[in-house]
Design goal:
- The complex is a heterodimer.
- Chain A has helices at about 5-20, 130-135; strands spanning about 30-35, 40, 45-55, 60-65, 70, 80, 80-85, 90-95, 100-120, 120-125, 140-160, 175, 190-195, 200, 205-210, 220-225, 230-235, 240-250, 260-270.
- Chain A is mainly beta.
- In chain A, the strands form 3 sheets. In chain A, strands 2, 5, 6, 9, 10, 11, 15, 16, 18 and 19 form a 10-stranded mixed β-sheet that branches. In chain A, strands 1, 3, 4, 7 and 8 form a 5-stranded antiparallel β-sheet that branches. In chain A, strands 12, 13, 14 and 17 form a 4-stranded antiparallel β-sheet that branches.
- By secondary structure, chain B is mostly beta strands.
- Chain B has one domain (about 5-170).
- In chain B, the strands form 2 sheets. Chain B has a 5-stranded antiparallel β-sheet with strand order 1-9-10-2-6. A 5-stranded mixed β-sheet of chain B has the order 5-4-3-7-8.
- The longest helix of chain B is centred in the middle third of the chain and has 6 residues, at about 75-80.
- Classes of the chains: A mainly beta, B mainly beta.
- At the A-B interface, strand 2 of A face helix 2 of B.
Chain lengths: ~270, ~170
């Protein structure tokens, strides 16, 4: 491999690492977009697009990496995604919706990232917690380690909505619906609860952006803040797909001297009344 | 949506109904479109706060193999949310095939299921129609139960549903 292609490979790796980060105020938006969220009939399929973009929901920047994709079925089993395809701007896969109830489709990115200086040069590192001591040289300075817990989700329901997949794991930032995420109607109020490590995330800010940005001048985003029980409410102004995101940075990493960044992103569909 | 209420004076019309019978007359409009599919239509009753729902009829494509016509039941989205998603289709005495354009009539005996479940009060007849590659329309007809006198309640849809008459007879 020549020098140029090595450099190119390195650039690709950096880009894919960056695209795994939870969206912060300055980053692109990450999302999973299902072809439908409310289904009837016995055996249906949804196809899902996974992308990282500025505008919602358009494929214009990078595909969302699906190494950490999983699908939880209503009966508690895990469903294997099918027909996975990688594109320039988006990755896609299909999910067979063979059971009645609610499915959760999620990408959980857990990882360690570090910046440090060695001999006056800034270095970047990405890996597992146990590799930190061996990978980062002892004489490195300005070592900044961060643990990332990114959660990107979307929900699909066949028939009657069920709650089995909505139970929190207690790790990172999670959304526990009070209003079922596949029972959202324009003009109605919906309530959700955010948990950080299983506890109510108090005072957490949430950004909600309706899709279709390309065809309007204003972002039309809505802001919400969780109350003392971690809940927030939103009244949907119009039907459509919405992107909801929240992220937090703290020192609650289990890794020594590391900061922790936890992010939660979901795509939800609001139906017409 | 126009709502015309005409009671006592219309005994000539209402008089033709059988005592204790509830009749829905509905016109499915003939539409000049390139690709026409007969609409899925759901008929149900709900009380003022929507806490009580009584299904009357569901027309859907029952003739496809493997009951594949159920795939589009969700397009009657209000019905689907209120009650449809809790049901299993086909359902005896409730579901039947889609109907062609023209006048259709449904008749229910007030003393039999499902009307005998109705406690006295204010209700709405809700009719929702959804057509493949077409539109969707929902009509509501408010009424009081049980009827004190013969009554004809008329509404008219704009696109997917034509004239509807709800005939109530004590």
């Amino acid at each position: 491999m020549n020098q140029t292609s090595k450099r190119y490979l390195k650039l690709v790796l950096v880009v894919s690492a960056v695209s795994m980060l939870p969206a912060s105020a300055y980053a692109h938006r990450t999302w999973l977009l299902p072809s439908a969220t409310v289904l009837s009939g016995k055996e249906q399929w949804v196809t899902v697009d996974a992308a990282v973009s500025n505008d919602l929901f358009y494929f214009e920047h990078n595909p969302l990496q699906l190494d950490n994709l999983s699908v939880a079925a209503p009966d508690g089993s895990s469903v294997a995604p099918e027909n996975m395809a990688k594109g320039k701007y988006r990755n896609t896969f299909d999910v067979k919706i063979g059971q009645p109830g609610t499915y959760k489709i999620m990408v959980l990115n857990q990882g360690m990232f570090a910046n440090y200086k060695l001999d006056g040069q800034t270095k970047r590192w990405r890996g597992k917690p146990e590799q930190i001591k061996t990978d980062i040289p002892a004489n490195a300075t300005d070592v900044k380690i961060s643990e990332v817990q990114g959660r990107i989700e979307t929900f699909v329901t066949s028939g009657k909505p069920t709650d089995s997949v909505l139970k929190p794991t207690g790790v990172g930032l999670e959304m526990v619906p009070v209003t079922h995420p596949n029972n959202l109607i324009a003009g109605e109020k919906a309530t959700f609860r955010l948990l950080l490590d299983g506890q109510p995330a108090v005072g957490q800010s949430i950004e909600i952006v309706p899709g279709g940005i390309r065809y309007r001048d204003k972002l039309n985003d809505m802001k919400a803040t969780t109350n003392e029980s971690g809940t927030f409410s939103v009244t949907w102004p119009a039907p459509g797909m919405y992107w909801m995101n929240s992220s937090v940075q703290d020192n609650k990493s289990k890794i020594e001297n590391a900061t922790r960044r936890a992010g939660y992103t979901t795509t939800i569909e609001v139906l017409a009344p | 949506m126009r709502l015309l209420i005409s009671t006592a004076l219309t005994t000539l019309v209402a008089g033709s109904a059988v005592a204790g019978e509830t009749v829905i007359d509905i016109d499915i409009p003939r539409l000049t479109v390139v690709e026409y599919h007969k609409p899925y239509v759901a008929f149900w009753l709900e009380n003022a706060d929507g806490s009580k729902v009584v299904n009357l009829a569901v027309w859907y494509d029952t003739k496809l193999k493997d009951n594949e016509g159920t795939k589009w039941l969700k397009d009657m989205r209000q019905w689907w949310r209120r009650t449809g998603r809790e049901l299993t289709m086909p359902a005896d005495g409730l579901s039947s095939p889609t109907r062609p354009p023209g006048p259709h009539q449904l008749a229910f005996d007030s003393k039999s299921t499902p009307l005998k479940e109705l406690l006295p009060g204010n209700y709405q007849l809700v009719i929702e129609a959804a057509r493949e590659v077409g539109g969707r329309e929902l009509l509501r007809v408010p009424f009081e139960w049980p009827p004190k006198a013969p009554v004809d309640l008329e509404v008219k849809g704009e696109n997917e549903i034509g004239a509807v008459t709800l005939k109530l007879t004590p």
